[in-house]
Design brief:
- The chain is α+β, with helices and mostly antiparallel strands.
- 19% of the residues lie in helices and 16% in strands.
- It contains 5 helices and 9 strands, in the order ββααββαααβββββ.
- Strands 7-6-5-8 form a 4-stranded mixed β-sheet.
- The protein is globular, with a radius of gyration of 17 Å.
């Protein structure tokens, strides 16, 4: 595994409540209602201990070894593309299996906060690469590719820590179940019963617009066809 060391530090998580309306206006062209952005509020500074996160998403080639060992169907994707269509429980099973292959390493999905810290670095930037959206730094719908690309194909879109594809290509499971942030606006729902799975995904996929590339954007898997919506995952583990 190509682990990236994320040092202990402060995460400026989420979006200030007073800025949510402006954010929704900025991305009005995507058709996303302001209610969806309110789930990002409030902005909170939290301290996270050090951890490691995989530089790239789990690939179809890596998943194929797990599929062969556990009797699962082989993925129908190029070996260097992210595996997609993976249910949350399957991603957790893969983590456990890989940990066993690596001598008992505690391989897991990143928490939502860890994911955002790996994407944002030490500041409150809007995208992994900075505060301005630029077409060509991530595999999103504006590129018109319509499917996944090899992991790490957009090195200029790396996060401050050098983590790749934190925006686009495949949407990524975290270990965190959806819940409002402490101090969230009162209108933020306490559960999302309409979601196919209650665990938070981050980063957006090839079929998503630029709003999902934002480091603060949090959502669940709302459709059952996880291949069509491009859901995959990356790995995390504790610091050395």
């Amino acid at each position: 595994m190509d682990w990236v060391e994320i040092p202990a530090g402060i995460l400026r998580r989420g979006t200030p409540a007073e800025e949510v309306e402006e954010v929704a206006h900025r991305y009005a062209g995507t058709g996303v209602p302001v209610e969806w952005y309110r789930k990002e509020a409030p902005r909170t500074e939290i301290h996270l201990p050090a951890f490691r996160i995989a530089r790239t998403q789990v690939t179809a080639g890596q998943w194929a070894l797990f599929a062969q060992a556990t009797g699962r169907p082989a993925p129908q994707a190029p070996v260097d593309h992210p595996v997609i269509g993976v249910a949350w429980k399957e991603a957790v099973d893969y983590c456990r299996w890989l940990g066993d292959q690596l001598g008992g390493l505690d391989v897991r999905l990143p928490t939502e906060d860890e994911w955002e810290r790996a994407a944002r670095g030490n500041d409150g930037r809007e995208f992994p690469w900075g505060n301005e959206y630029r077409t060509g730094l991530a595999n999103l719908v504006d590129l018109g590719i319509g499917t996944t690309t090899p992991v790490g194909s957009f090195p200029e879109g790396a996060s401050p820590f050098g983590v790749l594809d934190m925006a686009g290509n495949a949407d990524e499971w975290t270990s965190t179940r959806y819940a409002p942030y402490p101090g969230a606006p009162s209108e933020v729902p306490s559960t999302e019963d309409w979601a196919f799975d209650p665990h938070i995904t981050r980063g957006g996929a090839f079929r998503h617009d630029r709003d999902l590339a934002r480091c603060a954007r949090r959502h669940c898997a709302y459709e059952q066809d996880l291949t069509a919506i491009g859901v995959g995952f990356r790995l995390a583990t504790s610091a050395k």
